[in-house]
TrEMBL record:
<feature type="domain" description="UspA">
    <location>
        <begin position="177"/>
        <end position="300"/>
    </location>
</feature>
<protein>
    <submittedName>
        <fullName>Universal stress protein</fullName>
    </submittedName>
</protein>
<dbReference type="InterPro" id="IPR006015">
    <property type="entry name" value="Universal_stress_UspA"/>
</dbReference>
<comment type="similarity">
    <text>Belongs to the universal stress protein A family.</text>
</comment>
<dbReference type="InterPro" id="IPR006016">
    <property type="entry name" value="UspA"/>
</dbReference>
<keyword id="KW-0963">Cytoplasm</keyword>
<comment type="function">
    <text>Required for resistance to DNA-damaging agents.</text>
</comment>
<feature type="domain" description="UspA">
    <location>
        <begin position="18"/>
        <end position="145"/>
    </location>
</feature>
<dbReference type="Pfam" id="PF00582">
    <property type="entry name" value="Usp"/>
</dbReference>
Amino acid sequence: MSQTQRLLLIAPSAMTRTPAFDRAAMLARAMQLPLHIVAFDYLQALAVAGLFAPEQIALARDGYLQTHRQWLAEQAELMKKHGVDATSEVVWVQHPYEEILHFVNEMSLALIIKDAHEESALKRVFFTPLDWQLLRDCPVPVHLVTNALNPRPRNVLAIVDVLRSEDQDLVFNDQIIDAATKLAELCEARIELVHVYDWTAVYAQDMGVGALPLATGIYEALGVAQHEAFAALAERHGVPTECRHFIEGAPLSSICKFAEDHHTDVIVMGTVQHTGLNKLLGTTAEQLLHRAPCSVLAIKPGRMLQGE
């Protein structure tokens, strides 16, 4: 197994240079790590036709793969001219996630980079089933890129949840901020730190066990406690006061509006797999991944964004 850390760019099957190419090249230079580019090809029509004319279809498939390999190699050569140690390959496979896990097991990957698709009219991101598999299950940090506005991000937003109670969850907040700080330093970008206090959700939960309106003061006290915990977390990581944002409101809409108002390029957030449920950490995280107005960097517990 190779111990040399590298970045993995998952290129689209179409021979098109997408925003993820520029983001991957920029990060590879900034992190001083080699970049491996892989594209996964599989044409169902060719696979079915191969059942009836295997030799002819095999030739057609090989010719298509060779064309794609040559195109991808040209993209790698362009990156090399700009100081990136880039390699490439094309793999014929129907289910790419299993092949990606092979790369994870065989390479020391610091980060996986892939395009997501932004529907500008709706200001939301569209994720493919492969994207969701990577976000939910892949042990390596995953960066999904939506647009080419800023190949080098200028504004990075880290989202934390100070309601985390277990020790390992509190450490996860540290990992999220560390990853966002690392990305911001690499890109010479501004970092913002956000926690959203949704007191209405807390109140609604308590109403189910007979809370009284007089208990409003309890929720105010909880808000003060969360604010203090957030301030301590930000202070521990050296986040400037003007870059700390404690927001009261609905988490999803508050985060999306903040990202839009502050022209955020990348949202750094944490995701984990719920055992037996195949869900991301909390409904807010899952919904945010549906509606994020920008690129996303998803961090898993215990995994840091590496690089020099």
